[in-house]
Specification:
The protein is built from 22 helices and 25 strands. The chain is an alpha/beta fold. The strands form 7 sheets. It has an 8-stranded parallel barrel. β12, α13 and β13 form a beta-alpha-beta unit. α1 runs antiparallel to α2, α2 runs parallel beside α11 and α14 runs antiparallel to α15. It starts with a helix and ends with a strand.
């Protein structure tokens, strides 16, 4: 089938719903017709290898749901200097068992006002020091030859104030001002501020920025240099979709929609999770299936579960292919500090009870801070009160609480409310940094054990596991950001340090920290990849073992029964259980019985038996 015919066939499947949704938002037939024509152009101009991949993945729509999927997120400059450097490091990434690379923001953004690359000045240009669009396309081709998928961020809520649209708006051009939210007096901004929460109350208070030379207020939900786009304007939606399709045609496999809950603004609301957001995401999903059906949508929805799940859409009208399991991540670290898994178990039961079509991306750490948006209604029942508990968690992970081995720093520390978020690498949070500084080998072994236990627990969850670059070799916090004027006010750069290739090279030297972490992870990854019980369609449950410090997870299909037991305490604990029959310890190969097994402090057990 020719490309034009294939496009027409795909469009016909979705045309009526797409048009209905578009007209519901915009009531503009001319703009819809333009959108369809530009979609056709992007479809027929897609590279032959991508067209082939589209066809293959259409025939295998569950291609990304296998137990072989393993991702890693990384900063191009920190990891390998530039895009060509990343291409040269693909053999290393393959040795990490990684088959999905999430490149952190790399599009052109102004120095010192980039928010880590999330203030985009040009959606079709790459930061010059990182390379060119040609380099990106070359990297994508090289990745595909190695069976590696490529993921990137699409920042659609806002642009940089240096974007061409923003520059024209600043000059008073009404056409471009209408692409943002401009007001010539403070009355409407004040109305918004009555109902819209602040994202960064300490570092970027308020939701508007006053432009003195213009005499206008502009909406800036995140930072003053990030101007919110007005998706009430169909020109904004169309042009951003053209940018989206342009990037998809560079060879992207997964596109992460940044800050998606924020993209529709409505006076008198919180400007979060409004129905029109779901209309836009549903249209994006259909546009993907028409033009580039091999591309997946990953939604960044950093909110409580009941607000996250709707972004999957429904089986009949799907939205995102996958979402971040943010709540579980934050609750994991709460469990580390409290040695109490009750809340984690409750939340895992909720996630495990969702339809198998819902696919989560699981992680321990990422480029961002950890916010303590926990289920405090439940924690109150455990005697953990919100304000005091947040202070405890921050004291614990900064190493200021008795018994803590963690090292890290606060982010957005509010001196009034004493509320804050937290920054640090997995290894430093597990005590590796402290043990090395004190030259305590016993403490180092304990820290590595905890690090591997947490990764084993993450790999046991349903969904796609995502590593953070450096975690595979136990990389520590990097305080050097404090010497850079452009970064020193943002403590998130503590865990965004440059990848230490000299230390990473030791991952093959027996007995080194790097080898102990790398080889331990590799063993877990290989086991997960080799056993069907880790497929996303397996049944998953938690198992009550009568100890609040131990999390037990059961996975099973019609061939195999798997049990993972994870001790979140630093003391040996008994998992009170009696499983009939003999199990194989998947790490040691030993045959074991599960009759009240004792799990050492911060250790874990992976066992399995055939049915």
């Amino acid at each position: 089938m020719k490309r034009e015919e294939r496009f027409v066939e795909r469009l016909s499947r979705h045309h009526d719903e797409l048009r209905w949704l578009y007209m519901e938002l915009y009531d503009n037939g001319d703009m819809f017709a333009e959108l369809c024509e530009r979609m056709r152009e992007f479809a027929v101009n897609r590279d032959a290898d991508l067209v082939k991949m589209d066809g293959e993945r259409e025939q295998d729509p569950k291609w990304f749901r296998g137990n072989d999927m393993l991702g890693m997120m990384l900063y191009i400059d920190n990891f390998a200097g530039n895009l060509k450097g990343v291409k040269a490091k693909l053999p290393y990434l393959s040795s990490c068992n990684v088959n999905c690379i999430h490149l952190m923001p790399f599009l052109e953004s102004p120095k010192g006002r980039s928010d880590g690359g999330y203030a985009v000045a040009d959606f079709r240009r790459i930061q010059p020091e990182l390379g060119t669009m040609g380099d990106l396309k070359d990297l994508a081709r090289a990745c595909h030859k190695k069976g590696i998928n490529l993921c990137m961020d699409f920042v659609m809520n806002h642009t940089s104030e240096d974007h061409a649209w923003a520059k024209k708006a600043r000059e008073g051009d009404g056409e471009y001002m209408s692409r943002y939210f401009f007001y010539d007096n403070p009355s409407i901004p004040q109305e918004y501020d009555r109902t819209v929460p602040q994202v960064f109350p300490t570092t970027a208070p308020g939701n508007f920025t006053y432009l003195d030379k213009m005499g206008y207020y502009v909406m800036t939900t995140f930072y003053p240099y990030q101007w919110d786009l007005n998706y009430r304007n169909p020109r904004v939606f169309n042009e951003m979709m053209y940018n989206f399709l342009y990037l998809a045609n560079q060879g992207m496999d997964i596109i992460r929609i940044d800050a998606v809950p924020y993209i529709w603004k409505e006076l008198g609301t919180q400007c979060r999770n409004l129905p029109q957001v779901h209309t836009i995401v549903r249209m994006m999903r259909m546009i993907c299936e028409i033009v580039c059906p091999s591309v997946l949508l990953l939604g960044e929805v950093v909110m409580e579960p009941e607000k996250v799940v709707p972004y999957f859409g429904t089986v009949e009208k799907p939205e995102c292919h996958m979402l971040y399991n943010v709540t579980t991540m934050a609750t994991t670290w709460h469990s580390v500090a409290t040695r109490d898994v009750r809340l984690l178990k409750k939340q895992m039961d909720i996630v495990n009870g969702l339809p198998k079509d819902y696919l989560f991306l699981n992680y321990l750490r990422c480029h961002d801070d950890i916010g303590w948006g926990l289920d405090y209604a439940t924690l109150e029942g455990y005697g953990m009160h919100e304000v005091e508990h947040k202070r405890f968690l921050n004291a614990y992970f900064t190493g200021k609480h008795a018994g803590s081995v963690s090292r890290g720093e606060l982010y957005n520390d509010d001196p009034v409310t004493q509320d804050a978020r937290f920054c640090g690498t997995t290894a430093s949070m597990c005590g590796v940094e402290r043990a090395l500084s004190e030259q305590d080998e016993t403490a180092l072994s304990a820290a590595i054990t905890q690090d591997l236990m947490l990764h084993a627990y993450m790999l046991t969850q349903s969904g796609i596991p995502m590593l953070y670059s450096g975690d595979e070799v136990g990389q520590l916090n990097d305080p050097s950001y404090k010497e850079d004027p452009a970064k020193r006010e943002d403590s998130r750069y503590l865990h965004r340090g440059r990848f230490q290739w000299d230390l990473a090279a030791k991952h093959t030297e027996k007995g080194t920290l790097q080898e102990r972490v790398f080889s331990g992870l590799a063993r877990l990854e290989q086991i997960r990849k080799s056993r069907e019980v880790f497929q996303s369609d397996a049944a998953v449950y938690t198992y009550d073992v009568k100890d609040n410090a131990i999390l037990c997870i059961l996975r099973e299909n019609d061939k195999e029964r798997f049990i993972g037991i994870f001790n979140f305490s630093d003391e040996a604990k008994t998992a009170w259980m009696e499983e009939p029959g003999t199990y194989e310890n998947l790490i040691t190969g030993d045959q074991v019985e599960l009759k009240n097994p004792v799990i050492q402090g911060h250790d874990f057990v992976w066992v399995s038996k055939k049915k």
